[in-house]
Amino acid sequence: MAIKSILNFDMSDPLVLVEILTVPAKVALVRFNRPKVMNALSDALCKELEVALRALDDDPGVHVIVITGNEKAFAAGADIAAMAEFTYAQVYSENYITRYWEAARSVRKPLIAAVSGYALGGGCEFAMMCDVIIAADSAKFGQPEITIGTIPGMGGTQRLPRAVGKAKAMEWCLTGRFVTAQEAEAAGLVARVVPADKLMEDVLAMAGKIASYSLPAVLKVKETINAAYETTLAQGLQFERREFHATFALQDQKEGMRAFVEKRKPDFKNK
Ligand code: CO8
């Protein structure tokens, strides 16, 4: 599908490129497109991103969304030049960041961040809003806001400790140092590190695999794991049990289990 049919902006200079792939099927690829400034995240870019994510989430032909940047940068943070002269009254009144930037939070389909190069500040925070981070071996993560006189503003102080623990989150945010892909994987921020030249191949293979499963079951996995961050253990376990029970109302549960018993591939209908 052409980007124009999804986004309603002046597409002469799109800040976000969107493609619905034919191979693998049911996978959409979203690419940040500000290469001259290391994909620094501007308000305009995030506005386009929000529209794209909502359209893809609503599209029944899309099961998985992959978000990436370019070889040098996933995104090197919020646009520092744009922010430099902001006033408190302005950012508070306009609710800076909150309006568009966090659209990823409400996307129900799996979001995979394919990170090559720098994922810093808001770039690292955006990757953490995704469900899985796969990193090229060249990737560098970090929350360097402290080095420019501010602090993480899009979840760095909240999602990072949940991913890597308090000690590492404190050290990374207080020093602002860059962390290699290997260190990020060992700390639990990243699911897998792959050679840089195989990043998209590996990520798309993974996305294609997820997209081939029953969509309602996939949505339930995401929703149930995310509940672990918002509930007590007892509440989370109860939610999981009920959602597990609910899968028995799906035709795809019958198909999946019958296919296993009959030693054939399941033919999921997403219902
Ligand atoms: N904003 C604006 N421009 C940027 C940014 C950025 N975050 N990062 C890089 N650029 C620009 C540079 O200014 C430069 O532009 P020009 O060619 O016009 O001088 C161009 O991109 C290339 O960058 P460099 O020349 O610096 O390239 P290097 O390879 O030497 O260094 C780095 C690359 C290490 C990525 C370096 O550019 C850097 O340190 N960038 C800033 C990283 C940073 O501090 N990020 C945190 C920003 S604050 C933030 O994200 C706040 C989060 C709060 C919420 C965020 C919501 C998204």
Structural class estimated from helices and strands: alpha/beta
Strand proportion, as a percent range, falls in 5-15%
What low-confidence regions span 5 or more consecutive residues with pLDDT below 50?
1-5
SS field, number of helical segments:
11
Secondary structure elements and pairings:
Elements: E1 16-20, E2 27-32, H1 43-58, E3 64-68, E4 73-75, H2 80-83, H3 88-93, E5 111-115, E6 118-120, H4 122-129, E7 132-136, E8 140-142, H5 156-164, H6 166-175, E9 179-180, H7 181-187, E10 192-194, H8 199-211, H9 215-227, H10 233-246, H11 251-261
Parallel strand pairs: 2-3, 3-5, 4-6, 5-7, 6-8, 7-10
Antiparallel strand pairs: 1-2, 8-9
Bound molecules: octanoyl-coenzyme A.
Describe this structure in words.
The chain has eleven helices and ten strands. The strands form two sheets. The protein has a six-stranded mixed β-sheet, with helices on both faces. With 271 residues, the protein is α/β, with parallel strands linked by helices. The chain is globular and about 65 Å long. The two termini are 24 Å apart. Mean pLDDT is 95; it is low at 1-5. α5 crosses α6 and α9 packs antiparallel against α10 (233-246). Bound molecules: octanoyl-coenzyme A (CO8). Octanoyl-coenzyme A is lined by residues 37-38, 40-41, 76-81, 97, 101, 118, 120-122, 125, 144-145, 148, 152-154.
